[in-house]
Structures are given as C-alpha cells and as structure tokens.
Amino acid sequence: MAGITVALAQFGAGEDKRDNLHRMQADAQKAKDFGVSMLIFPEYSMFYAKMNRRSKNIQAAEPLDGPFVSTLSQVARQHGLWIAAGMYEQTDALPYNTIVVMDADGMLRGVHRKQRLYDAFGYRESDECRAGEKPFQPVDTPVGRLGLITCYELRFPALAAAQKQDGAEVLLVPAGWTVGANKVLHWRTLLCARAIENNMMVFGVDQYIPDCFIGHSAAFAADGRTLGALEEGNGLLTITMDKENYDAI
Fold it and tell me: Which among 21, 74, 71 is positioned nearest to 47, based on CA atoms?
C-alpha cells in the first residue's frame, strides 16, 4: 500500500448534471497525470440544488445503472482509477443520498446509502431524502480495506467505530458540510478525532460553494497528524500513502 496516491477532489456541484460530470472528468484526467490510484469526490457530486430540493432531487435521481454511474464507470476504466462519488439514487419515493465506489475496471464495488440524515441545526434532510437501512460494507482497495460514512454521520462516533470493527483501515467521509459558526472547526476536529479514536486513516472530501459548503477537505493519519488539507475554493489534494500513516499503535 505504501507509495499509492489518493486524490480528494474538492468542487461545488450545481443543477447541470452534465456540467458536473465534465468537471469530474477533468479532475480524473489531472489525477491520472499525477499518478493517482484512487479519486474521491464529495457528497452530492452528481447534482446539487440550493432551492426546491425535494422536487428537484426526485427529478434528478438516477438508478445505479443510470447515466451518472455509467459515465463514471467509463472514466474509471479509461484512466485506471478507483472512484468514489455522491449521487441521488432513484427509488419509488424520495431518493437515497448515495455514495458509489467503483474499481479501476469500472465495476461497482460498494454503495453507501446515508443512514443518519441531516435533521439538525434547523434543517431536515429527511424531507428531501430517504434514509438508508444498513451501514457500508468495507471493501478491499489499493489503499487498504475501505470504510465509508457520509457527512453528518461523522458526528456519530459509533458509525466510524463500526466500520473499523468490520475491518476498515481507511475511512472515507464524502460531505457537503454546510457553512456556519465554527463549522470548519467542527469538520476538522471530528475528522481528526475519528482517526485517533479508531487508529485509522481518515479522508474527508467536501464540496465548496460560497455561503453554502465550506470546502476544507483534509486527510489525517491514524495518530491524528494532518497529511494534507485544502482551504476554500476548488482543488485536488493528493496524498501519497505511507505505512506509518495507517497504524499509530
């Protein structure tokens, strides 16, 4: 696993799904040029609407074999990249807030449907999304056994601990972490805490939209050291894996 490079792609998605995909494809090309093996995009990468989210999410949602996943599969295969990205998954009612993980051959290897929806701080994600029924099943990848939680789930230590208990060596946290008082502090502190308390490397990749999502994607070693971090704006954070970053004990 040493020498493997991971990239966190920080960007802000909008309501034009084709434009979002074009931007993701451009990041994939950059990642390939940098020698990256795994490229991680934020929550909501497929589509994000600031207003009328319930109706627009239902309209935008796609099945797992729809255009968004199919195109990312082609991108993964073309560039030889593992890719993780957020989407709205179609159901017979409200969509799931879903993260898909595919391998370098473009095969779908994992799906996480967010269980703990963001019903907090005056917001109700449950009005616009359907909660998942079970946790992510960690999957073997070039960076080790991969666990995954989504955004608000970072605030629940037991969810990260359960991923560790299921064998995860690295935890992904794709997010749309909203702006607000001390939100950058919360985001960075919680990512670091999940790393330290579980003796597990943690990657947090966030959207950046001014006055909406904070950005500040970051990676932490198992002992809490910051391996790399972005601030505001769009960007690609690359982390080259080192054995000592996996295990602090």
Answer: 21
